[in-house]
Amino acid sequence: MATTDKASSRDRLLDATAELSYRDGVGIGIEALCRQAGVSKRSMYQLFDSKDAMLAASLERRAAWYEAQLAHPHPETATPRERILHVFEQVTKAAADPDYHGCPYLAVLVELKDPGHPASVVARGVKDRLTRTFRTEAERGGARDPELLARQLVLVFDGASARAGAKVENLADGLAVTTVTALMDAAGMA
């Protein structure tokens, strides 16, 4: 029974960390995280070496879900262009939620500013995988310079999610999708 309690406490801590760090930033205090999770600080330190380790574990735990949200639902039949556009359609859809604060992985990188921080390492891994996905799709779609197009697409992704998350840009008009379409057209992508 103790194992189940520890797993449950761990899950609650990871959920609280994901929710509060996304909403309030990575500077959220341990007390607030433990209170939200209903777990004592002592128990938290039995489960995690530090708050930094808990933040990294929380980001890692949600990475597969996050990446799945951006993946086209029919990758076997969608064209490379459709798979890329789907990513930006998902950002546009997510940005309509009043609780949207941008890409959680970009936010961690910006807030921490320390590339060696465990959470930064996880966040950078997610962003690197997105870049590789864009590069692969650009290659499949015949882009003249797939590496350049991938970098441009990540730049638009991060800029769109950051501006929408800061509530200074409304993506509902399709700005991100039309920008990405123009970039793919300019790159000669089918």
TrEMBL record:
The keyword DNA-binding applies. The keyword Acetylation does not apply. Residues 29-48 bind DNA. InterPro entries: Homeodomain-like_sf, HTH_TetR, Tet_transcr_reg_TetR-rel_C_sf. Keywords: DNA-binding, Transcription, Transcription regulation. Residues 7-66 form the HTH tetR-type domain. Gene3D superfamilies: Tetracycline Repressor, domain 2. This is TetR/AcrR family transcriptional regulator. It comes from Streptomyces camelliae.
